[in-house]
């Protein structure tokens, strides 16, 4: 039984193994062919490589000296590596610098564009601001003109100073103008105050001043007391605050030049006054605020509403000829000695001899000074004495 079972098992294994052997034999044959082909290809490649190698070696040997001094010898490997590294570093730096320059140019161009846009915006804002200011000034001047038309100046009084060469009108019912005493805090050589007649009705203004400055002392208009001061010291170097010419307005309605800074100016507080430069003097005509007055609005509007007479007074300002009285001649200092004898008549020193007769001295003194207020032909008049022209006239010539 066991032999039969074994035979059956062997038959089964043969049935399985024999087909496998056939498959493996076929694969082996195929692999052998592939390996053989690969060996043939390898042989051909090696043959071709040897031929190429021999040609290259021959060429290199011909140029051995040249190549060996440059980049192909082991003896120079360190040098060659250093050269390569330096070249690579230079390339990296060049590329990096190129990128940096391109980046910088881009940023610079962006900044330039930004500056140009800001400048354009500033110009537009300035033009708009100028247009607004011009419109405001025009409207305000119309308003002032309307107010002035209602003011009757036919009875106004004139104040004039021949010493400083000006005259100006002021309302007949105002207080008498008062010349202000000189102050160390002011550089004006002369200041006269024109006060309104009713200080209670006018809450902000008490009148106006005419301040006179000597150009020889004040030097420039910018050094007068009325010239606007900067809001902050830090604004001294600001480009927009260096020049006030934009606030100086030529007007044909007044003989003076108007200096006007509107409300909200970034450099200076709002200010309004008129100025005339003539000869050796500067004349500033400025409305005077009360000590406790607080100005929240525009100064021009406030003046036109509360002190309209100011503009009419400015329009009447005139320069006149300077006339100053000549000083009395100073009496020369007398150095001669006092006479030895005399009498006083009417406050004068005269001869004490009632019947004095002028005669030459018998002592032979020559020409000498009279010491008795009795003049003789050979004497000089004593300056302390009075000599009657009727009696001594011919000796006084």
CATH arch. level architecture of the domain at 151-234 and 242-319: 3-Layer(aba) Sandwich
**Total DSSP E strands:** 14
Stretches where pLDDT is under 50 for at least 5 consecutive residues are none
CATH topology of the domain at 151-234 and 242-319: Protein Transport Mog1p, Chain A
Strand content: 15-25%
Helix/strand class: alpha+beta
Order of helices and strands: HHHEEEEEHEEEEHHEEEEEH
Largest sheet: 7 strands, antiparallel
Mean pLDDT: 76
First-last Cα distance: 201 Å
Please tell me about this protein's structure:
The protein has 397 residues and is of the alpha+beta class. Among the domains are: 151-234 and 242-319, Protein Transport Mog1p, Chain A (3-Layer(aba) Sandwich), CATH 3.40.1000; 336-397, no CATH class. It has 7 helices and 14 strands. It has helices at residues 2-62, 64-68, 77-149, 215-218, 299-306, 309-315, 389-396; strands spanning 157-161, 166-170, 178-179, 190-195, 205-214, 248-249, 257-261, 271-278, 281-289, 318-319, 343-345, 348-350, 368-369, 379-380. The strands form 4 sheets. The chain has a 7-stranded antiparallel β-sheet with strand order 3-4-5-9-8-7-6. Strands 1-2-10 form a 3-stranded antiparallel β-sheet. It has a two-stranded antiparallel sheet with strand order 11-12. A hairpin with a 4-residue loop joins strand 1 (157-161) and strand 2 (166-170). The protein is elongated. The chain starts with a helix and ends with a helix.
